[in-house]
Design the sequence.
């Protein structure tokens, strides 16, 4: 066990009824590491990252985030959630609030930040994702790409140590994918610890420190991107890669 | 058959003397009914059987019986019960206005609680997950995310219930109250001109409904401003 691991999953299992979504997952993520998780649908990728901030409750093994183990203790769960941000496939902005309010809500309620400070942080982050002029609009008035950038900014407002991305570009029109990937690449360059479930192999190649391939609830293969793409070892990985890279 | 307009001109001002009572019945039972509905809805979605079952039984009883029967039970039935006559709530049940309010409140409360539940169920789970991931507590999610979104979702159906309640207030006339319908019935008994009088009454209710409908539409548009592109 390395001492600088911010995420440690040991032998983690999770079932939905009789369906075993995760089987014996072992994963360590170091501070500042960028991990891309890929695999066929239903392979457990989303479930794995959703266990990290307890949107799903694992039923076997141990998950330790930044030294705190995830148990049923509400205080511990909240402490972990304060440090772990998440970006969703369907953006999940709060539809009834302006963009600015979306960014301020959790700062005010969870971090107990003053209104002025929350607003400043929010505006800074909207600058960073390059849409400060949208601050007073409602989510529905923005394009998908803009909404996802807002969602990333909203997560950043909480100053998380780790950000989980759950297929952040899968719901986007092709022409909007790049603007979101650019923001994510920018984050990576600042040393954010990231786990990203995605099928954007270009992003994996250029940004990831490690690529993880999952199938049927297991981590089948993990390697540096170069080795992963040029020399996959497992047959299931080879098959998956040939399917997604063939066209 | 002849249609006597002078009768209408005579009757309308008299009927309008009851508009205050109609309004009191509507507003008081709508407000109390809403408060009750929120409580019942929270019990219903609590996930605890000892809260959810009584709520469901209550809803079933009040949606399963005619409101006229409910008014009769409260007005004619409750005073027969000794423990009610001897309790501090007796003044409420001795008074027909109190009885009408109790019956209308209980009735609308049952319907509105289901309308609110529909709104709560309609809130996108993903939005709540985003709140969870940001560290909001169950309570904070309910106050800042679920409630405002659910209220907007429930509003059209709720407006429908308020309009329906306006018409239900007419049933209070069956227990001696002189609301607009009560007055109209008295006039009909004196003039034997049901056609003119009840048509006038119907038109007054339609005008009130129109006003309610317009106001509710405004509230809907205001609360729904985030839904417009």
Sequence:
């Amino acid at each position: 066990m390395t001492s600088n691991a911010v995420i440690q999953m040991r032998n983690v299992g999770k079932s939905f009824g009789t369906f075993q979504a995760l089987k014996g997952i072992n994963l360590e993520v170091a501070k500042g590491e960028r991990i891309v998780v890929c695999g066929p649908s239903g392979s457990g990728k989303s479930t794995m990252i959703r266990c990290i901030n307890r949107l799903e409750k694992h039923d076997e093994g141990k998950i330790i985030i930044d030294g705190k183990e995830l148990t049923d203790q509400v205080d511990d769960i909240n402490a972990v959630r304060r440090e772990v941000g998440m970006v969703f496939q369907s953006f999940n902005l709060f539809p009834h609030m302006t963009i600015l309010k979306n960014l301020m809500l959790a700062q005010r309620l969870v971090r107990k930040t003053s209104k002025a400070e929350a607003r400043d942080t929010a505006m800074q982050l909207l600058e960073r994702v390059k849409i400060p002029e949208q601050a007073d609009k409602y989510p529905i008035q923005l394009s998908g790409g803009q909404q996802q950038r807002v969602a990333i900014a909203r997560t950043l407002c909480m100053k998380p140590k780790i950000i989980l991305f759950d297929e952040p570009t899968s719901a986007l029109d092709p022409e909007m994918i790049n603007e979101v990937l650019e923001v994510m690449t920018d984050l990576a360059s600042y040393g954010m610890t990231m786990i990203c479930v995605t099928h954007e192999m270009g992003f994996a190649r250029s940004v990831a420190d490690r690529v993880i391939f999952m199938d049927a609830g297991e981590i089948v293969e993990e390697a540096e991107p170069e080795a992963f793409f040029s020399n996959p070892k497992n047959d299931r990985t080879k098959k998956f890669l040939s399917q997604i890279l063939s066209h | 058959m002849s249609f006597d307009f002078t009768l209408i001109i005579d009757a309308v001002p008299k009927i309008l003397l009851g508009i205050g009572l109609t309004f009191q019945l509507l507003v008081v039972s709508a407000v109390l009914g809403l408060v009750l509905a929120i409580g019942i809805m929270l019990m219903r979605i609590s996930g605890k059987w000892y809260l959810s079952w009584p709520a469901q039984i209550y809803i079933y009883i009040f949606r399963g019986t005619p409101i006229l029967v409910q008014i009769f039970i409260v007005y004619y039935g409750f005073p027969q019960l000794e423990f009610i006559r001897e309790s501090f709530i007796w003044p409420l049940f001795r008074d027909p206005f109190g009885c009408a309010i109790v019956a209308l409140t209980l009735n609308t409360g049952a319907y509105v609680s289901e309308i609110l539940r529909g709104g709560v169920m309609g809130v996108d789970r993903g939005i709540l997950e985003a709140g969870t991931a940001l560290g909001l507590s169950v309570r904070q999610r309910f106050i800042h995310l679920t409630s405002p979104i659910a209220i907007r979702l429930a509003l059209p159906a709720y407006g429908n219930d308020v309009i329906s309640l306006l018409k239900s207030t007419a049933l209070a006339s069956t227990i001696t109250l002189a609301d607009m319908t009560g007055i109209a019935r008295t006039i009909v008994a004196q003039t034997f001109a049901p056609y003119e009088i009840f048509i006038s009454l119907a038109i007054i209710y339609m005008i009130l409904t129109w006003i309610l409908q317009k106001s509710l539409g405004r509230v809907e548009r205001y609360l729904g401003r985030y839904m417009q592109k």
Q: What stands out?
A: Chain A has a mean pLDDT of 93. The first helix of chain A runs from residue 45 to 52. The two ends of chain A are 40 Å apart (CA to CA).
